[in-house]
Amino acid sequence: MTATPPALEVSGLKKHFPVQKGLLKRTVAQVKAVDGVSFAIQPGETLCLVGESGCGKSTVAKVALRLIEPTAGSIKLDGVEVSQLDAEAMRPFRKRIQIVFQDPYASLNPRMTAGRIVSEPLENYSDISRAEREERMALLFEKVGLRRDSMNRYPFEFSGGQRQRLGIARALALEPKVIVADEPVSALDVSVQAQVLNLLMDLQEEFGLSYLFVSHDLGVVEHIGHRIAVMYLGKIVELATREALFANPLHPYSRALISAAPMPNPRAKRERIVLEGDVPSPMNPPSGCAFHTRCPFAIPRCRSETPALEPKPDGRLVACHLVE
Amino acid sequence: MSAPVAPAAASVTAPPPRARPSFARFLRRNPTMALGGLILILLLVTAVAAPYFAGDPISMTPAQRLKPPSAEFWFGTDHLGRDVFARTVYGARISLLVGLSVAIFSIVVGLAIGLLAGYFRKVDAVVMRLMDGLMAIPAILLAIALVALTKASVFIVIVAITIPEVPRVVRLVRAVVLSVREAPYVEAAVASGTRTLRIIRRHILPNTIAPLIVQSTYICASAILVEAALSFLGAGTPPDVPTWGNMIAQSRLYLSVAPWTIFCPGIALATVVLAVNLLGDGLRDRLDPRLARRM
User: Fold this and answer.
1) Are B191 and A99 inside 8 Å of each other by CB?
2) What is the pTM of this model?
3) Are B43 and B50 in contact, with CB atoms under 8 Å apart?
């Protein structure tokens, strides 16, 4: 570890959505979408967030960008705390962290040309001159593999993969250090997924980008991730390097998740761990370890005591009473 | 928005170049809209050009009372010997003025309030309850009250009809804003540092235009009807200004002797409202996103 601060560091991040009822909008419950998440991403590193639907992955991503305000916790960009800044004070920091969305259709304004979509971030900052903007636009289109003369076209004239490239060009426009990718390839055809993933990896190498990569597709995660955080019901249950996690997942939930991933070789034998039941409601999470209702190894202690996310001998973090 | 399409872009993937939409094709595809628009344009032209051809709507010639339509008086004369044709044409001025002004004012005010209420959730609850309150006021009662308090004038009538129309526009705009503000492209704009005002102007406002154009035609039609009702009751426009409403009111005693004195303004009123509604229906079919064909 060097002395440079992490590109993005969140700690104790919580987002509780109030459930309101009645005429007076009394808060009757809290949905704990994100309940105490901490991680740091080093420059040039890709951290993947995996987990099933509704576990709070995308909420973490949006809170990190402050598209959703956190209930508690801190967000640091290059070591600077940004979670309390007001909208105007936040603007300079928005240059450092950008987002690529899941849906390449809804994330581009259908009334704007490709050129205007990509130049919008540049127009927002007066320190970028018009000439510089033109120059950077041409470069961006080239970097993401789009023809320069497609600037005058509208989003509906592009294919899904091309639209996602537009989304990436827009995210790159301000030369950010961190890109939050919220399931950027899950809406694309498999053949196009690989192209977009490789583009993201090439760009990472070229610009030293850090990615917070949200996905539920373990194949994608294995391809792009350096470190992987497994989330369950708003909490990280295991955070390990890609190699360690895929070779030997320690948390029972990670094990189940990885055993469920399809393998390229249909004859390969692997122990399948099939979980029973459904994800409990985040409005009323189980006591103790949130996973104990479905865990095949649960012991009485799991019901009463919440396991902390603790470092294990090989350096990874696991939140489980049974893992030594 | 309408940058000329680069010739290179049109080469490979673009559909074959479409023929310039000719006027004849437009008529064939949108008969209702064309008919409504045509009637409206004709009426507008007659109303604007009234002083040049319509004759005098005010002067009385008691010797010529209640004359049926003839070559001299196209629509006949009323009980004071006034030219019904001239009065009908001049009446169109008031009707169209009120209809268009109410449509424009209520759209402008409603758009501003609707954008605020939809985008800034904190003002929403207060503003919307206020709008509910305004909606409960009937335009006719408000106009009678305003005219009683001030001097009767066309402007007062416009204000009185605009006030209860505003909430309808606010609701419409707010609904559009609420659905668009959650769109990922709006989130993308926030993430890339776009200021709120620019987000509203660039990403949200354009989505409200189509429904507002349609709504404005309906507002225009209902404003014309309310104005006529007010004039009929004598609660709006000063009685010395010829309007369709007060023409009908003043002539109602002579219905059996001189039906033309009532039928002429009545038919004119029905025609305008029909034309505006036809135009509105046509526009709705054309601008409805579910039937989206590229314009």
Assistant:
1) yes
2) 0.80
3) no
